[in-house]
Amino acid sequence: MMPKILLVNPPVYDFAAYDFWLKPYGLLSVAGYLRGKAEFKLFGYLDRSHPFAAKQKQLESDHWGRGRFFCQQIPNPPCLEEIPRYFRRFGLPRNMFVDFLKEERPFDLVLIQTMMTYWYQGVKEVIQDIRNVCPGAKIILGGNYVTLCNSHAQQLGADLLVTGTNLEPLWQYLEMTPDSNQPALWEAYEQLNVGVLRLTDGCPFNCTYCCVPRIYGQFKTRPLQRSLAELKLLANRGVENIAFYDDALLFEAERVLIPFLEEVLKRNIKVGFHSPNGLNARFITKELAELMVQAGFKTFYLGFESASPLWQQRTGSKVFSDELSKAVRHLTAAGAEPASITAYQLLGHPDADIQQLEDSMRFANSLGIRGMLADFSPIPGTPDGEAARQWVDMDEPLLHNKTAFPITLLGFDQTNRLKDLQRKLNRSLPEPRTR
Ligand code: B12
Ligand code: SF4
Hints:
It is a single chain. The chain is of the alpha/beta class. The chain is about 35% helix and about 15% strand. It has 18 helices and 16 strands. A five-stranded parallel sheet has the order 3-1-6-7-8, with helices on both faces. Helix 10 (about 255-265) crosses helix 11 (about 285-295). The mean pLDDT is about 95. Bound molecules: cobalamin and iron/sulfur cluster (SF4). Iron/sulfur cluster binds near residues 205 and 206.
């Protein structure tokens, strides 16, 4: 008999959350490796195609498949009481999961996705409900929170924690043999409008605020044929928008992204591509910009962080201001609408004094592109996360919260002033033709 496995993408407890092409890609990838070897059920709290969410007007998707989650306001956790923002639980209501478990039980195994370190309360809630309704099921956690806050995650009471990218302990625990050529288990969704792809793993840079190089080791490309098979699977399911979750999608593009996009054109696959995780402007050449636009890239998020040369050098020199200007020139010459290009800049970084954020925001605006303040979340084990210990208790993951940390560091008024300025600068630009 095949084991019966439940896949869960938990609800999110946070001040803010928005469906910016969010999918539990690690979880679906792991399940994909076991395709045909187990019976799967998925409960996605953040699935806006679920009938409960799909019928609510205010949760409707925008033109590119993004949208709001259903949410309920709840009291701030005690350690975030001082933060003057409403705390919420995002995702399908709790009783829906309990009813689902009662209807579908028993399960042999439950695999739970963990994502942001400061989202562990949702994971805890899911574990409690499973223990109550399906006491015989073995619970397995994997993903970022488990990897970055392992000893904290051990207190949640799961049976196995899979850390990092080594899945060997999982296969041993399950006594199953994976098929690593299989794409993610997208068919687990009954309705699917948005998909995710990842053509590479890791990143060759070493930014002081990021944990990717430490977790993924050397930059590696994924097999092109497997990515193309996954794209086909998504396109056949009717997916219209695909977000890349790569950390360095444009690095060594001639080995991965270029052949991938050429194949997209050759096969006449029509989907909109997006890069919410940020592209490195340094690698956007004239030719690459043309190919990206032709093959269907609709939005371009560029990781810029700051226009201050000192700050850029001190944090890893991943991109310089002239490289951003050049990338914008290439993209717009290739036909990208300037309003579809957005530069991310970090708000609340520990070196805020040398970051010259206002100047950086004005610089991006002078290029005719939008800016987005990416609230800084300190990550344990990174140089900047460790530096953050002087302001917050890094052993409490709730204090890594990206809304809370900038307010703790800069104060509420200064944080609001900078956010207002960003909104004002964006309003000075023409509206995107399609939002
Ligand atoms: C995609 C991504 C996003 C997406 C959304 C992701 C989502 N679904 O929520 C977007 C672009 C929206 C995003 C936003 C942000 N992100 Co982000 N993001 C990532 C990224 C690149 C991948 C995360 C992911 O989906 N991993 C799963 C898949 C893709 O990974 P995988 O390698 O295939 O998985 C393997 C293993 O990890 C394991 N595995 C993974 N999951 C599971 C599950 C199970 C059950 C098992 C057994 C195994 C397993 O098995 C797989 C084996 O191949 C990570 C960096 C990274 N490379 O991990 C940062 C990362 C998670 N983000 C980070 C940050 C800082 C942010 C932002 C705060 C940035 C900002 N300032 O705005 C925001 C916060 C958003 C919010 N609402 O709070 C940090 C973490 C911060 C933290 N404290 O936890 C990370 C680690 C990057 C970094 N800077 O170091 N992010
Ligand atoms: S370039 Fe991006 S993924 Fe790479 S180390 Fe820097 S922040 Fe992390």
